[in-house]
Amino acid sequence: MSLTADLERGVVRFGTLTVGAGPVVVIGGAGADARWINLRENHGRVLASESVAAVRAGWRGPVLVEPFSAADLPEIAANAVGAVVGAAWMQDFQLVRAVARLGLPVLVQRAPSATLEEWLAVADYCVAEGNDRVVLCESGSRTHLGGVTLDLALMRAARERSGRPVLADLGGDPGLAAAAIAAGADGLLLPPGSTEREALAVHEAVKIVGAVTRREDPGSLPAARGAIDRVDAALALLLERRAELAGVIQRLKPVGGFAGRDMDRERRLVADMARRAPGLGEDRLASIMNAVIEAGLHLAEERMAADRGRARAE
Ligand SMILES: O=C(O)C(=O)C[C@]1(C(=O)O)C=C[C@@H](O)C=C1
Q1: What ipTM was predicted for this assembly?
Q2: Domain total in the chain
Q3: Among the atoms of ligand 1, which is closest to the Cα of residue 265?
Q4: Are residue 72 and residue 35 in the same domain, yes or no?
Q5: Boundary-marking domain end, from 217, 242, 270
Q6: Of 247, 255, 253, 252, which is closest to residue 301 (Cα–Cα)?
Q7: Is the CB–ligand 1 distance for residue 266 below 6 Å?
């Protein structure tokens, strides 16, 4: 059994940014892999060239741009690595076709009430214009509460049906990053207005949840090191949590610490782990877990000694 339903994914490259293979990418917000600009926000009153230049002034990485109208397309062709088909006009097929003809990869947001078929049809329009470099971005449905609800099941279905990379637009709730990654999102969209704290939490989810749920097949040394760094981040979190729990156990046992060591229990937990780590196997896991368990016992004994010291001083 695997958490990662190993779905086949296509890969789309926005300039230097690869979506669909490798880590989950973050578009927008502090520390992002790419920025995006929505020219509709200013109702077309600010020139595309000015908006792009403003972002470009502080950012050398990939920029994706959503046009306000066809007049913006030359600027996008010249200065962006990708075009965004916005949720608000996903079915403006004239503009969709013109965007697809730019030859840049296209990010297609889902309109709030669009069905899966309607959404996928937009990708087909791009393909009909000779552009197969399409990623699909779930942007949420309007709900009775007046807000927007991300439909992660629909996002999964879009990936299964189309084989294209899928993104989740976290505009309404950056707290959904972990859920979106676990549901198979290849990337996350953050609104430019998101706080640094929100962006940090999203990047943490990319590392930790991505490490657990996403199998990577890196083809270069930096990519492989990036992937191993994410796994180490998840390991560190789990090792710390494990040490805390081992400490709780030492306090609950009649005889805690090294004096109360239970080798039978250790052998059983190693055997259980070996089922999930058959490559490492029981012998190697036994020495890894010995080090982990001893570190936990040392920490627990240190803390218990400190507590006793404090109690004596009071
Ligand atoms: O389960 C226990 O009895 C523990 O003390 C916890 C733990 C562990 O870290 O997993 C630590 C020492 C024992 O030898 C066995 C297991």
Answers
A1: 0.99
A2: 2
A3: 15
A4: yes
A5: 217
A6: 247
A7: yes
